[in-house]
Amino acid sequence: MSTALRKARSWARRVRDRIAPKALVLMYHRIAESDSDPWGLCVSPQHFAEQLDVLSSHGPVLNLTQLATAVQSGRVPRNAVAVTFDDGYIDNLEQAAPLLERYGIPATIFVATGYIGSSREYWWDDIERLLLQPGTLPDRLDLDLGEFKRSWELGEARTLTPEQVASSRAWRIPEPYPTPRHAFFHDIWGCLYRSPQESRTTALRNLAAWAGTTKQARPGVRPMTAEELGRLDAGGVVELGAHSVTHPSLPICTPETQRLEIFQSRDRLAEITGHRIGSFAYPHGDFDSQTAGLVREAGFLGACSTRRDLVTNRSDPFRLPRAGVLDWNGEIFARHLAELRRGKPARH
Ligand SMILES: [Zn+2]
After folding, report:
1. Structure confidence by residue, pLDDT tens digits, 236-257
2. What positions does the domain NodB homology occupy (predicted)?
3. 64 lies in which domain range?
């Protein structure tokens, strides 16, 4: 091919990409106020209402299965948006659903089915409850994580005062740690993230005993029950999607475990709703080609990652990018939306 022809084709491709219809998938977790939110999972109900107000005059809003189907048929609507929630928190029913109904905006809630009806919190919330509340912990921790053991001398991380908790309210990972306890918390999170499910469950139980607490889930932080999920599904505004059973990082699981996590979460939700489940979200956004292949084999129509980008007709429906939304008011949200539309990385 001549250089001139190559240049002309590359120019034509750039023009086509610029004018091609693009959609945006937004990722939420909780609609709640929180004094401690290391992962930036919470958007306040007030801010969520303001964000929906912006979306209501933005462009067509689809649920994830509708968007995945549009990608598959090469008919992504221009300026389309899909609203998604991960995990299955109770506030999705109590706070998000009434607002979604009020604005007539559909959404997809991806549920980690092993937590349905559980009296325990999601594991990342459990360690936040154990380690980032005010109090004093023992000097030393020995944790058996199955494949490896770790020990910590806590030193200054032993104590966390109410003042330190209050002053670190706005702290979000990966900002610098406000206290040694926050560094310790993130270290424990990393160890549990890399652990197989059985080791993580045992380690969490041992961690709670070591911290001197066996408290059950905080009422506002608990996962939804099957009855509550069924009610959401019947409401018609929200569709349920699968998000594995135990919320592991799937690529580090064996192929057999990945298959169980994907297929069993599909079956549990089909049992609750009485119909087929169309979409999947990879826990932690982690997947590889084997994971994506299993999700396709399970009969889903599409799956979401957490890579920040726009969806086009050329996107792989099993690798749909998403953009996380933080606790922004309507004005800041609109600015981020415009930046995301232009393909610019949104600043926090
Ligand atoms: Zn999740």
Report:
1. 999 999 999 999 999 999 999 9
2. 79-348
3. 22-120+222-341
